[in-house]
């Protein structure tokens, strides 16, 4: 009788033992890091998570999700990268160029998916725009600068001097500066640079452009975007209009922006991560570029910065922020 009584319990124990490893094997892990927290990069992070859930990978169920911000510090980015590599996740998502460079430098084996990187080739993340054949792929937020300058001319038709505040140490910004130096003279304009190596330098860099520039153009430089309110104050005080490439900056005080929807960019990145979790190799996946562009305008900010947007431009916007 004892043997008969204990047999079912033994069978249950065996069944549990068989199921537990299967459950562990089914769970995937994704580690996400960003160089700093600001609306655009936060939107990328949230988009990645939403896309993974839509693809069947949900945090707390079959996905272990962890996120860390480097708070704008490249040294911290390197520490996070080393920590994540040591955790051996199924994929690391690195948001923005400095974080992506830190992660790529830290591993040649763990799959890495970068996002919100303007030029991954110039940043030495991948050898070309074709499949890397290594452990890295991702999604770029590369923008067509000729379209950006077309918008700038519509906002400030008589502009001749374009000011730009940027971090010279950020690869994506250095690429934009180089291209603008080649492009602007063809359009009858010149570039006036103002370096902001740290986010606390943004205000003084912007003030240095007063009297030297007719308009300030801001790219997706992380120091600048994280301190955009300081730039807006200078723009309002000095009647110096701000034209951005980050649509989230329009709600914060830019006059206009023709840019990428960073939530969409995050979802695009998340779908790529899901492909890797399902078995594809990152080296076989070609780097993607977001092609969905949106025009945002802020007529109220324009008035505060000394200009008036044309009715035609306002009517053509995907979003008008008052």
From TrEMBL:
UniProt KW keywords: Signal
Keyword Signal in annotation: yes
InterPro entries, per the entry: ABC_transpt-TYRBP-like, Peripla_BP_I
The keyword Zinc is assigned to this record: no
Extent of the signal sequence: 1-24
Name of the protein this chain belongs to: ABC transporter substrate-binding protein
Organism: Comamonas sediminis
């Amino acid at each position: 009788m004892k043997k008969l009584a204990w047999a079912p319990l033994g069978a249950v124990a065996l069944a549990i033992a068989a199921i537990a490893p299967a459950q562990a094997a089914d769970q995937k892990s994704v580690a996400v890091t960003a160089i700093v927290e600001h609306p655009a990069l936060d939107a990328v992070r949230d988009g990645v998570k939403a896309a993974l859930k839509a693809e069947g990978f949900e945090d707390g169920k079959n996905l272990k999700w962890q996120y860390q911000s480097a708070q704008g510090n490249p040294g911290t980015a390197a520490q996070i990268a080393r920590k994540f590599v040591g955790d051996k996740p199924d994929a690391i998502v690195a948001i923005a160029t400095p974080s992506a460079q830190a992660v790529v430098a830290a591993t040649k084996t763990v799959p890495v998916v970068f996002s919100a990187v303007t030029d991954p080739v110039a940043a030495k993340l991948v050898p070309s725009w074709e499949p890397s054949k290594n452990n890295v792929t991702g999604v770029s937020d590369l923008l067509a600068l000729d379209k950006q300058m077309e918008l700038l001319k519509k906002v400030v038709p008589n502009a001749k001097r374009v000011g730009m505040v940027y971090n010279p140490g950020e690869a994506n910004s250095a690429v934009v500066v180089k291209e603008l130096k080649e492009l602007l003279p063809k359009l009858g304009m010149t570039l006036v640079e103002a370096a902001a190596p740290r986010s606390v330098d943004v205000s003084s860099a912007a003030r240095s452009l007063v009297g030297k520039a007719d308009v300030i153009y801001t790219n997706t430089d992380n120091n600048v975007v994280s301190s955009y309110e300081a730039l807006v104050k200078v723009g309002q005080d000095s009647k110096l209009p701000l034209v951005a490439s980050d649509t989230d900056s329009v709600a914060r005080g830019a006059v206009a922006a023709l840019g990428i929807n960073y939530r969409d960019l995050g979802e695009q990145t998340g779908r790529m991560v899901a492909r890797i979790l399902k078995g594809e190799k990152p080296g076989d996946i070609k780097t993607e570029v977001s092609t969905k562009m949106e025009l945002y305008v802020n007529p109220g900010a324009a008035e505060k910065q000394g200009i008036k947007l044309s009715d035609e431009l306002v009517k053509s916007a995907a979003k008008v922020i008052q």
